[in-house]
Amino acid sequence: xxxxxxxxxxxxxxxxxxxxxxxxxxxxxxxxxxxxxxxxxxxxxxxxxxxxxxxxxxxxxxxxxxxxxxxxxxxxxxxxxxxxxxxxxxxxxxxxxxxxxxxxxxxxxxxxxxxxxxxxxxxxxxxxxxxx
Length: 132
Fold this sequence. Notes:
The chain is of the alpha+beta class. Helix content is 55%, strand content 14%. The chain has helices spanning 3-6, 8-15, 19-22, 27-38, 75-110, 123-130, and strands at 47-55, 58-66. The longest helix is centred in the last third of the chain and has 36 residues, at 75-110.
């Protein structure tokens, strides 16, 4: 048995064929089959969620895959990836900054410190009302 016949993808393909057909492929044919089916293999992903949803008389499938990108990106894809990364990082930094400011404001209010006499954002009253 050749090395190509030991390949998991080729072995899986050959196992679905009758025995008399499995033995008729040459190494060259197996190599081309491997190339042809290689484009369809997804590989392992950190997140691999697949399922089927039935709506009325039809069934629809969904696939959600996520993981490390191992592909070579085109220039346009690289630019979009950098933009998306900048937006995500900016959003995360803004969220964390606002959360820290909120916690600091609540601590200041709990300690009774007033920066401006007679002025309040109302956040402390709202926060105390949550636990009343």
